[in-house]
Amino acid sequence: MEGLKPNTLIRLSKSCIGEAEKNAVMGVLDNGYLGMGSAVQKFENNLKVFFGREVVCVANGTAALQLALQASGVGPGDEVLVQSLTYVASFQAISATGALPVACDVDSSFVTLDWRKAEGRITERTKAIMPVHYGGAVGELDEIYSLAEKYSLRVIEDAAHAFGTKYNNKIVGSFGDIACFSFDGIKNITSGEGGCVVTSDKEVLQKIQDSRLLGVERDTEKRYSSTRSWEFQVNEQGWRYHMSDIMAAIGLEQLKRFPEFSLKRKSLASHYDNLLKGSGLIEPLIRDYSSVVPHIYVVRIKNGKSRNLLQQQLLQIGIQTGIHYKPNHTLNYYRTESPYNLKVTDQIYPELLSLPMHPDLNFKDIELICRNLLSLLRN
Description:
Blueprint: H1 19-31, H2 38-51, E1 55-58, H3 61-71, E2 79-83, H4 88-96, E3 100-104, H5 115-119, E4 126-130, H6 141-150, E5 154-158, E6 166-167, E7 170-171, E8 178-182, E9 195-199, H7 202-211, H8 220-224, H9 245-276, E10 282-284, E11 297-301, H10 307-316, H11 343-348, E12 352-355, H12 363-378
Parallel strand pairs: 2-3, 2-4, 4-5, 5-8
Antiparallel strand pairs: 1-9, 6-7, 8-9, 10-11, 11-12
């Protein structure tokens, strides 16, 4: 077994922050205005150029999903279709509106929403569908939009993993109904925390702008100029979900570095694929890294090998791995009286293992990981 040097660890994920981000934060601190101001406005404008559509920045990706749902009219008594194999944030965003997240199965190739099976879960209460771009992959998005059109559903894309990914040669978020992104510390770009909603729906945009500031109507423009509303009106439930200038300052610098990050993530994932494909022991998920910018790199452990034991053995030699994610229909809060029949999800979850993926890795790290991984599986 080829271990690492003592007291070293190849981390599963990490923030990749440099001097530019640190200096940008110091600039905000020196300015003395730390809340939502001109830096947030500039970050939104730069993201608008990136996506070619209007953008609203918020406190995190979960807030982006919740506010997008709320602005789309989703609320108590409604149902939203979403794959069970996603981070609990997707489900929490739905239930936070008072709606019911309806757990759906995934397809076995892309581990994204199986729209055929999801169609069977549509009821008169179904208001929206939330495709999750797992690991950066989009799956059969055209078919999902066709399904939504057939049943008059809103589509809120959970694109937290897919910043920069292209679908049909178009950047995710530059088309479709509503797309929500996360900028937490380990995403494709980070603002420390943070997220955004991208859409062409002006009514949805205005509602999100207001609801992120506690429902105070038309307060956004004042915040951009470092002031606030003293005489105002509130007509709907709002939340304190706005982004701060400190977060935006980091995000602005990260967005500049995204071409570098994107190329590095794609090349690392492709190198993993080349080393692991054909081993018979591991099955990398199907991804086209000419268009997918991977947030995580996930493999399926085959032949009945113990995923959890393998994870422990890798950590003992200094390689950190992860599991994305425990299916939500197995969590106490989201269990139902009638158990969900999600055959593919239940089958592949015990096989999933996430290997280290972040721009501070290099090819030698990937080769070391793969040699140890395959050696453990053979022995």
